Please model this.
Amino acid sequence: MTSQIEEFYASIAVPSNFEETKKQIQKFCERHSNQKIVLVTSGGTTVPLEHNMVRYLDNFSAGSRGSASTEHFLDRGYAVIFLHRLNSFEPFVRHFSGNSILDMLEAKGDDLVVRREWVGAVAPVLQRYRAVRADGRLLSVPFSTLGDYLWLLRAASERLAALGPRALLYLAAAVSDFYIPPADMPVHKMQSDAGPVNISLKMVPKMLGPLVSSWLPRAYVVSFKLETDESLLLQKARRALTTYRHKLVIANLLKTRKERVVLVTADAEQEITVTAEESSSGVEIEAKITAELLLRHEQFIAASAGR
Ligand code: PMT
Model:
């Protein structure tokens, strides 16, 4: 398996900002080495169909789960590495998506100020954002393609390994299981006058395997399991746990992912829900998920210290 993973990495391009990003992650991990750090992955992954990419395969994930969870982890005192797909939702600014900044501002003399009707919405978010900035507890790392994501996931995991049990991985990104190896990809845009195209996709190796067994074996690793068929969901979540032997799988269905998840561990299952009333009063399911994970992670740290 290790050689299969090494061969896979050798076949995909390293992201352009890789060395610089690794340094930033290293610095962030050193700065917060006495705290709990969570790596949150978020958004979908782009699978290029051409080297000079015009077309690509994608998936639905908007990054709502990852960006909302990041804010709640920050509220609970974690330092967060937010590994997210470029242009997906980001913490804090996500609250204003769909609104143009130009509609929120007005000119007052030489100044630009937030329009009165927006102040109530902007001020509390701005305050939380400024507090997080002031103590440098959020490192935002963007990626675009599947290859970029996998390089950065491994680099961040290897640096977080030094924290032992204080590292939490929260793998919410929707990662493609299929790709076209660069060696099989055309260099230039596929030409429609050449007729229909047959595309053969290869399997992406499951990175949970090496991540748990060798990149950071002492961390608290949480993966997600997304299905569209309820009858498969829990059995596949349990199977992921027995295969990769990590700590917890959060199972969710595409249609109900904002209202219900199931936390699956080796010996128990716990459902977390948000009612319609809670939802309309602004309660997010990620607040409940992160509250529960904080408890479980702290118990894990305490148990690891006793070993
Ligand atoms: O962003 P939103 O719109 O809010 O949606 C949130 C979400 C539905 C994307 C999120 O809650 C979620 O379920 N994310 C995981 C989706 C997914 O990729 O599930 P999966 O069953 O295909 O993969 C399971 C796990 O294996 C994932 O944690 C993934 O990180 C991991 N994986 C996947 C592929 C791969 N090659 N290697 C991996 O390790």
Summary: The first strand starts at residue 37 and ends at 42. The CA atoms of residues 46 and 166 lie 31 Å apart. The chain has a mean pLDDT of 96. The radius of gyration is 21 Å.
